[in-house]
Each structure stands twice: as C-alpha cells, then as structure tokens.
Fold this protein.
Amino acid sequence: MSSPISRPPADLESGQPAAAATAVVPPILPERRSPIRIAAIVIPVLLLGFAWFTGATWMRFSGAADRWWLMLLGALAVGFIPTALAGFNLDHPLLRAVYRLTALALGFLNFAFVAALACWLALGLVRLAGLPIAPRTIAAVLYGGAILATVAGVINAANVRVTRVTVDLPGLPGAWIGRDVVLVSDLHVGNVRSQRFVQRIVARLQRLKPAAVFIVGDMFDGAKVDVGAAVQPWADLRTPAGVFFVSGNHDEFSERAPYFAALGRTGVRVLHNERVDVAGLQIIGVHDGESHDAGLFRQILDRARIDRGRASILLSHRPVKLEIPEQAGVSLQLSGHTHGGQFWPWSLVVAKIYGRFAYGLSRQGSLQIFTSSGAGTWGPPLRVGTRSEIVLLHLRAEKKA
C-alpha cells in the first residue's frame, strides 16, 4: 500500500492529522564522495596471517596433518572484502549467498584466532602447574568453544529485543509527558538483512504503539539493493507524531539521494540538517556526513535556533563531538553506529574509543545521550556480549531541584 510523500504528524492529544512541522534550517547537503578503500589491501593480508596462525596452532596442538580446512577458512575470510566491494555495484542472489558465507567465516576466524592465542597461554599454564592435560585436549576445548560462540552469536543476533529506558527531560511539553518514543538504528539492509527484516521491525513497532519513531542512520548497509522495495514496509507504520530519519555512514557509501527519496515515499520524514517542532518538542536531525565537520555541525545547530527553555531531541548517527550539541542547548541526543562492539573482543575496542558513550544512557553536562547497539549487524551476522535491539524511551518531565 502506497502512502503520500509527506505524511504530516498528528496532534498527540486528538490523534488527528496536524499541520506539517516547519523546517527552520535550510538543508545543507554537500557533495558526497566514495570512501577510500585502502582496507581492501591491508585487511586481506592481516586475515591471511590470522588464518595461518589459527591453522598452524591447531595442527601443532592436535597433531593433525590436514591443511584443507586452513586453506578454506583463509580463502573464505579473505573473500569477504572483495565480495563486500562487489556488492556495492551488483545485486545478485549468488553474491548475497557468498557474502553470507564469507561473513560467517570471518566471524568464526575471529573466535578461532582468539582460541589459538588461548591455546598457547593455556599450554604454558598447564606446564607451569605440572598438570597432565594433553595439548590435543586444550585445542579441542578452545576451538570447540570458538564454534559454539559463532553459532550462539548468529542466534543471538537474529533475536531483536526491546530495551526499555526512562528519560527525564527538562522543559518537556505537556503533550509528550508520559509518552513513549522509539529509537531505531543500524538495520543494515543489504546482503544479509532484507525487506523481511524491515517488516519484522515495523511489525514490532506497531505493537509498541510509540508516539514517534526516530531512525538514526545506517538503514542500508551500502550494498546494491532494490531501495524502494527494501523500505516499503515503513509505509504501513502509523504513529501520532511521525517517523524521522537521518543518515549514517553506510547510507553515504554512495549517492544518498535515492535513499532519501525512497524513504520519503513511505511517509518517513528525512531531516535534512534541520529542526522541526511537533507539539512543542524540538526535533533536530543532522546527517552523518555533516556531523564530521565540527564547524559545519556547529553552524547547523546554531541556525536551528534551539529554544533552551523547551526539550529538544537531536538525531545524529555517531556519539561524537558531543560538546557541540551540549553548547547548543540540546536536551537529548540519540545515536547508534557503535553496535556496542557487536562481538568480543571488538566490544573492548569500541568501549576504548567511545568510552561511556559506546552504549546506553549517559550524560555530558546538560546533554543526555543514548547510544543504541542497533537492530542489525555489519559483516559477520553475529553478536556475542551485545544484543540486537530497538529502544523504547519513556519520556518524563525532569523535576526541578
């Protein structure tokens, strides 16, 4: 079922359509550039080294002489990079199947490499303690754990949960007090996630019945897909205040205008570096490409003329340069991008990079930030130590001290 290009938000009290919110900041849409893919050379070399070390360790500890699985694992893991790059320009069922296979191999290699490192550490401890544990047993246990972690990670990633959080906002308009809104991020529709996945998310949102839905980027993975078909399920979603979207870095791997147009046809409101007012709540959206430039980011928020006396919500893909929205008077920033690290040990790396803003609700001065781990995955379709989620935010008025 089709819907109008611009579906006006409804009045929160009556549930009847209201006048469309007015943008107060003209769009700033700089020319996009394709990403530089130096990683296409560096990463395969590293993966080959990891695969060699993983296989050599297994052979040393188990006494096995077979090398075929080592060569296969290395070829599949390395094949992820060219397959992913080919997917930017080619949409074919065979390519999608190969992508999924190589992505799984890459995920298993991650845990198998950790298992190989652990084998040498365990062997040293066993010998130091004088325990009668054979190297073959050490390898069987640790490599078996790598297999179990991969399988469990795939199952975990496929299970999208609802994370419920209460947020107190100063100056929250009466129409929004006690209302629920939903944060959605990082669906990564492409070679792994498809229109069916979007349908699942939309169906879950229908059951939650939020007042508004905020999508903070990476709707698409960057792979070539039928954009219109992929986002069509959003046309069936009805919320009193509307559905709002800003782009993420994966939405900008190629020209982003077709993505914006397709989403607009479903009734999703794409916020082009602008502010809209809905029932007194200020909603600001800044695309990922513009948020990288501190000066441009600051200019966009300055031109938004945010009223510090009323609550405001900023949609921005990454939880970075937070001093800029804080100084601009934003009440709450909603972000994604980090995936919470997606799986161990990358969760440790992400935590090191983003600190307390890597996941969950945190604060910098007067600015509150919620970073979601996202609904989808990138690369290996698995999660270990994190969860696929959509976030239900219950809004309350902050009590004055």
